[in-house]
């Protein structure tokens, strides 16, 4: 391990005797710490950009984006991956989240799941991972064996890797072609990385998936024209998008187009091709 590596995520909180705080004091101080997160993310935008550009290149050429992580980090990866199909209309297997311990770990902790350095590669092999793909390891501390082992083996197999952690010079970064280190400082509750660190990771994941999908042409103007119409709210939103874009049709005609073609983009293209 790099001698310059310091577990900032494990450092003592800036607060003490928290149990004596009033409810308002707890909330105000958590909020004060959370305000630091966006600034910390801003500092690493260049490294996020580098990863995004690499992901776009891979996905444009038939590859897939994988997230691997354990605990909160793994759950955040699963959430981001699961939101891509309904939001951007991409296949379910384009962005894939894998969590140590399997899907049951999404809902409850799986003992020692994160300590196996070989399991992530086994999990990736279930998806026939190849050098066409790219794998992003998510680990707040940057020391999770599951993630480190996965990235290490990926690189040995010429698979491009990225990482998201919240400590400088973390071990996980040493195995990433595109390491992102968002240093948010000590947590309000010492070591509780589901707080600022988790927020930072979620923000970075939002930026990655959003930027990638925009670059892949899944957004038109500022609209989710490829979104899956999974409920009435989204269907109604789609109808309005079509009306706003085409100008000359009413809600009934827009609804007919959307029902026939299944997405805002396809509806607009079909109407304009007449």
CATH homologous superfamily descriptor of the largest domain:
Glucose-6-phosphate isomerase like protein, domain 1
Number of strands: 5
Mean pLDDT reading: 94
Strand content: 5-15%
Strand count, sense and barrel status of the largest sheet are:
5 strands, parallel
Low-confidence stretches: none
CATH class of the largest domain: Alpha Beta
Task: Kindly report the CATH topology of the largest domain.
Answer: Rossmann fold
The CATH architecture assignment of the largest domain turns out to be 3-Layer(aba) Sandwich
What does this structure look like?
The protein has 274 residues and is of the alpha/beta class. It has two domains: 208 residues, Rossmann fold (3-Layer(aba) Sandwich), CATH 3.40.50.10490; 41 residues. It contains nine helices and five strands, in the order H-H-E-H-E-H-E-H-E-E-H-H-H-H. A five-stranded parallel sheet has the order 2-1-3-4-5, with helices on both faces. Strand 3, helix 5 and strand 4 form a beta-alpha-beta unit. Helix 3 runs parallel beside helix 6 and helix 4 packs across helix 5. The longest helix is centred in the first third of the chain and has 20 residues. The N and C termini lie far apart (64 Å). The mean pLDDT is 94.
């Amino acid at each position: 391990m790099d001698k310059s590596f310091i577990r900032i995520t494990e450092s003592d909180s800036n607060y003490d005797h928290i149990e004596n705080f009033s409810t308002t004091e707890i909330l105000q101080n958590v909020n004060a710490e959370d305000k630091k997160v966006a600034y910390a993310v801003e500092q690493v935008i260049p490294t996020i950009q580098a990863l995004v550009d690499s992901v776009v290149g891979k996905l444009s050429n038939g590859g897939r984006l994988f997230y691997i992580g354990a605990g909160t980090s793994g759950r955040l990866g699963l959430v981001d991956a699961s939101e891509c199909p309904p939001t951007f209309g991409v296949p379910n297997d384009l962005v894939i989240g894998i969590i140590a311990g399997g899907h049951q770990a999404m809902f409850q902790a799986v003992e020692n799941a994160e300590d196996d350095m070989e399991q992530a590669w086994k999990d990736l092999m279930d998806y026939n991972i190849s050098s066409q793909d790219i794998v992003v390891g998510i680990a707040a501390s940057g020391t999770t064996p599951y993630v480190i082992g996965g990235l290490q083996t990926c690189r040995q197999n010429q698979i491009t890797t990225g990482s998201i952690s919240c400590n400088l010079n973390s071990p996980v970064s040493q195995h990433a072609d595109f390491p992102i280190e968002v240093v948010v400082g000590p947590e309000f509750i010492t070591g509780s990385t589901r707080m600022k660190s988790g927020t930072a990771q979620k923000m970075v994941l939002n930026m990655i998936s959003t930027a990638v999908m925009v670059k892949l042409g899944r957004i038109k103007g500022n609209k989710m024209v490829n979104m899956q119409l999974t409920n009435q709210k989204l269907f109604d939103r789609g109808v309005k998008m079509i009306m706003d874009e085409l100008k000359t049709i009413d809600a009934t005609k827009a609804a007919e187009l959307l029902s026939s073609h299944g997405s805002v983009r396809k509806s607009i293209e079909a109407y304009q091709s007449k």
